[in-house]
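Notebook p. 47: complex prediction with arginine.
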Amino acid sequence: MYHLSIERRLREVVTSVLPDANPNIIGVRPCPDPRFGDYQTTALMALAKERKMNPRALAADVVRRLDVSEWCEPVEIAGAGFLNFRIKTSALDRVLETAARGEHLFLQKAPHPRKVLLDFSSPNVAKAMHVGHIRSTVLGDCLARIFRLLGHTVITDNHIGDWGTQFGKLLIGWKSQRDPAALQRDAISEMERLYKTVHSACEKDPALLEQARQELVKLQDGDPENLAIWREMIALSEKQFDALYQRLGVRFDHTLGESFYNPQLKSLVQTLADLGIARKSEGAIAVFFEDVPELKDHTALIQKSDGAANYATTDLATLEYRWETWKPDEVIYVTDGRQQLHFKQVFTIFRRWHPEASMQLVHVWFGAILGPDGKPFKTRSGETIRLADLLDEAEERAYQVVSQKNPELNEPQRREIARIVGLGAVKYADLLPNRQSDYVFDWDKMLALNGNTAPYLQYAYTRIRSIFRKAESDPGATPSADSTAVALSAPEEIQLAKHLLNFGLVLEAAAEECRPNYLCNYLYDLAGAFARFYESCPVLKAEARQRYSRLVLCDLAGRVLCEGLGALGIETTELM
Ligand code: ARG
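Predicted complex, structure tokens below:
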């Protein structure tokens, strides 16, 4: 029974004494004010209202029939019918013992696992991934990890932009002025150069623009030469993207770019027209939303007057494919906030088209990364910052920090730690703010060893690991039979243990709302609770029984930190 989290146990018990209440409304959550208890249930007020009862009377009735004495001090009724639970220290001891035996790490697999398709990162080919892509990549990857940790089935799909009008100009550039050596060195930069050169030449030369259009038409009509070049451009881009994904520890199950859906677009437009969902409008084909207040003034074009399909058309085809192929329970898109209207339109059209598709459609959007001046983050010369350069700089700066702190480590060791710390710092800085707000990119802040940062958490982890290195060389008093029983007593021990207990609850909340910042803040508080414990409770010098209890606390705190950081996509290190 101690495998179950206490909060879930409490919910079950409360539910069992209210057999005819809807179990979904009975929630148990951590008490907002720990002075009143550790957990509380709030459902009784709503239930009393439903039953036209006095909420305190209902609460008293529930308490009378409730037996939670095994885990809780006597239950208290507070306010207008809250039940407050305070966990007994003996119950904490037992939960810690089961965790120490490896039976759980304060989290449970979802009782009803969902199949979640995550669409994130999705850069455009022949263009460098820039700092704007970092949020989608880091956030999407973190969500994938959290869902997996909770036992859900996750499918990740990188919807790369590999089709579009830019290929007309790229084809001209490729054919007339590509530099094979440059292409070998840094393919994406060379393709960006080709595009820019042709693009600016087209501005002065309408004949060249027409030629670009022709090349595009040839590509769309399946001209073998253009198709081969286009394929090579994609392959070269993907190679560079993959290097970045590998560096970031991000992996995709599928990379089905926009072009994959191209063959479906014509018939899709026809179907929507036949169904009366889309109609002709000034030569184009459009979907109107007269009955959707927020979209009323935002007609969606699914075919332009020149016959070409749109971004939305491709996304509709993509969604149908995903539904038919994987039948997911949920599809989550991670992009910046400027695409909100786009996804509202796509979701609305798709619902009309496939009302039977029961999957949830969610747009998880995020704000911008700003420079110190509060404007979109750019290089000094005003160019967009390439993700690869940003990561290089992160590692370099972390190297300075690490070298200062650990001059005794050798160069490769310091480099490896700097890699872990630098990447961790960038990812954490991205995950910590509320995703919908813009944040200011600040090297000093994100690399600080104290404060709510990845390096602080990684350092807390190394401190825990060093306790175990010392414990090995100093095994302490010989453990007696009862020294494998946990017995918490100091308030700092109890606080730390209670904090560990909420790990699963926090992961569930982060998954529910797609907000990794909940997990960041939880880990930060965990590191704080650990520091307070370690300051006031000697571990290795304690007598055998206490020493064992405290080592268990250290070990579990370290494991939760490591697992939690892992769920954020952040590595840990033994030393730093
Ligand atoms: N390629 C797009 C961009 O860079 C993002 C695609 C997001 N996913 C999607 N299914 N529309 O803005």
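Notes: The longest helix spans residues 224-248. The mean pLDDT is 93.
Next step: compare against the earlier run before touching the bench.
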